[in-house]
Specification:
Length: 193
């Protein structure tokens, strides 16, 4: 069944066609959501909400883009909205502050570092990267996640974000520069412990 045929059936509220649509695109939606939310349960919630929204508003999809582009757009918007609704402003911590508060965690390494110490260090580095990504502007973060987590081309990102390809290039360039600065500061501080 082609995408066009599938969409016609989904618009006619055919349950089997909708189930097929969900099966074809659920990993795309979940992976995009987890790129924003960094939490499996929250990403699953957003994924479910995206498909509920898809079912209830499929008539508004005009077919001018691929269904995957529309789903990316829905997922990005719903993930951002989820963060706005569920993130307590007081819980947003900068990498620098997080680094100072957890310096004891990073100071665990000794001369004969064992595997559990390496795992802890890797976990801290992963957290630092997530904080750095989260600190990007919304547009930089969106373009970065779609490019690096979802491997979308600049053209596809431009379609999802409804901007030009040159704007995508600029956003990605600035996102990489900002991440470089933030992570360089983080690694300088952790190296001094």
């Amino acid at each position: 069944m082609t995408e066009k045929e599938l969409l016609i059936k989904v618009k006619q509220k055919n349950q089997k066609a909708f189930t097929l649509l969900v099966e074809q695109h659920k990993s795309l939606v979940f992976n995009t959501a987890i790129g924003f939310l960094h939490n499996k349960v929250n990403a699953e919630d957003v994924t479910q909400e995206v498909f509920i929204k898809t079912w209830t508003s499929i008539e508004s999809f005009r077919g001018e883009s691929k269904i995957s582009t529309w789903l990316y757009r829905l997922t990005v918007n719903m993930s951002i909205n989820y963060l706005k609704k569920n993130t307590n402003k007081n819980n947003i911590i900068s990498i620098d502050k997080k680094n100072n508060e957890n310096s004891a965690m990073l100071d665990i390494e000794d001369k004969n570092q064992n595997n559990s110490d390496k795992l802890l260090t890797n976990k801290e580095h992963s957290k630092a990267l997530k904080y750095a990504i989260d600190s990007l502007s919304q547009r930089q973060r969106t373009s970065f996640i779609l490019n690096k987590y979802e491997n979308l081309s600049y053209k596809d990102i431009a379609e999802v974000m409804e901007i030009s390809i040159s704007s995508v290039e600029s956003l990605l360039h600035r996102a990489k520069k900002n991440l470089q600065k933030k992570l360089l500061n983080y690694y300088k501080k952790t190296a001094s412990f």
